[in-house]
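Replying to the earlier thread about multi-chain prediction with a worked example.

Input:
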Amino acid sequence: MKSTKSNISRRALLKVGLAAPFVSALPGVISIARAAGPTKLQFMYPVGVSGDINKIISGMIADFNAQHEGIEVEAIYAGSYDNTEQKVITSIGVDTPPALWLPINSALQTFLGLDALEDITEQAKADDIYDDFLPGFLNTCISDDRLYGLPYQPSTPVLYYNKDAFAQAGLEKAPDTWDELLETAKATTLRENGELKRWGLTIGGGWHDWMFEGYCRQNGLVPWQKDKVLFDRPEAVEALQFWFKMVQEGVMPKASTWQGSANDFMAGSTAMLYHSTGSLTNLRTSSPFEVGVAFMPKKKTYGAAQGGGPLMIAKKQSDAKKEAAWTFARWMTNTENQANWSRATGYLAVRKSSWQSPAMQSYLEDVPQAKVALDQSEFAGAFLQVPGYHRVREFLKSALDRTLAGEIEAATALGEANSNANREIARVMRRRKS
Amino acid sequence: MDATIAERPSGAGSPPAIKPTRRRSLRSRIASCWLHLVLIPVGLLWISPLAWIVLTSLKTKIEVFDPEAGFLPAALNFANYPATLAVAPFGTYLINSILVTGSILIGQLITITLAAYAFARMEFPFKKILFTLFLLQVMFPIYAIFLTNFVTLHEFGLINTLPAMIVPFVASGYGTFMLRQSFRQVPAELSDAARLDGCGHLEILWHVFLPLVQPTLIAFTIISVVTHWNDYMWPLLVTNSDDVRTLPIGLGLLAKSDSGADWTRLMAGTTIVVSPLLLFFVIFQRRFIDSFMHTGVK
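Result:
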């Protein structure tokens, strides 16, 4: 009895196997099969600014899924930028990468090192990406003239200032050069009987290496190349010496934290603050005074390092998925969606056409501060896109902290950070080759 | 929880202290008053962050940082709570947190009791080496084995399920070690007597050992529940969809890196996340303390 049973099932199996190629060749059947099983894409994203980004993204994706038959995107919240990177790399480790993800742009070389990114140069050239995207933002996704992502939520640091504190000190205008910055900081620092009431300037800690790259760029130096850093150049040393001078003059704290510095600004304990454009909405709506926004002051030129992240598409997935992922990335960065996203979050829209849209124009009339970051982005470039950037950032931050604490000379500290960072980069690249 | 635990001995613990020394009641009363003088400020100190969390959750955004505004909110603003609940499905998260933490705890209590009994009271080959391996597991930081655990779960097809957050933690080297030490302190005569009465290993364990090591079990329960209730990175790594995620992930949505935290809603969220734990401890407080008071059997 047993043997009869197995015989039948084997025969049935063979029949099905024979029929399969013929059935799948019928065009009608294929489209039915597709409708039954849409291409499923996983999209991992971080939430970098407060507000209801989680809700906004879920809403956008629900819209996308409704509009695109045959594609189903699953939005996966993955924590902070660092958490997202860990989650994506873990998934790549077991050969099931998400279809797309949204990392910080500094991670470009890290993912290229894992051979995880789909080259989308050709699709982008066939489309209007190279014409309509703001070049400063697009550059953050380019390595060796190839495009590996679509910028989605760029931000830069800007100078926030407390207009009440400025009025109190008889100032009207935000500082425009490093020298003016020092003067303004002196004028707005408040001490009563030797006790500090208000700092003139605070540079948001935790990301102060990001601000420092801005200072290097303002001094005419991009402090990294694809395979090394240039922290020991005189331009960088001069920038750090300027920071140290502000600390010595007693107008800037030696150290701060990212959230703490924003809190200090809102509480009026610092008159000026270097922080991300991503904080604009929060600072504007939570401060009991009027908030001004200005370019980060220049030395030789204006300059800033780009924060925020692009949408990247995984290389190791089926062509159907790649195509669907491209459709999705393209949709997320279309003119209308970018304008809405920018207004809802404070991130900068990546398309020129988004900024010209009527909705965006009326937003800029209501919140003229938002325009500052856009104008400044013309002077902004990618942030520290070197392999092993996590460790490199720590080396640089440690050098900055120790210098400001007065433990070590600026030149010595940056020299050490430079050689440590370059050794680390060489190590990561060597490991990648083997 | 330190202060509540510390506070109890003055209340629950004083009767046994007074009973044998009734003639010295004045002195003991002074002693207990003096203890209160110390304990009340300590208790207040302990409760102040909690009070601050609740008060901040009732303020408006501007009030939080306005130096002019007082410690108390000008008007009770409960709007932060619905606004927080709108960010993520906290109800689902709460149920998942309870399921995950509870399952881990039950699993751990079973495995560590059996393993600790074996290590404490039985002889078998490679016992020392095996125990060293258990200790080694304690020394490995959890982050070091994230990837291997992830690969294993992936092969089991458990990614993005509740068991993914439970399975890797059902055995605990730390708990086994803790319990083995307690078991070794139980006099051998007790278990020998039980064996003469005809008890097998499981019965000895159930009737003799477990009642005597209750304080250790409770201490371990507290450690385990707090650890897994607050775990963030592992659940974030192995889950993708809202219906299997836990409370700390919801909190993570409100503490942002780019823009600074959304304090009012973060505090409302924190209140939501910690209150079940607090409630749990308040309800079982007497049991916890009692078991600690009865540790005299040795």
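The first strand of chain A starts at residue 39 and ends at 45.

Feel free to reuse this layout for your own posts.
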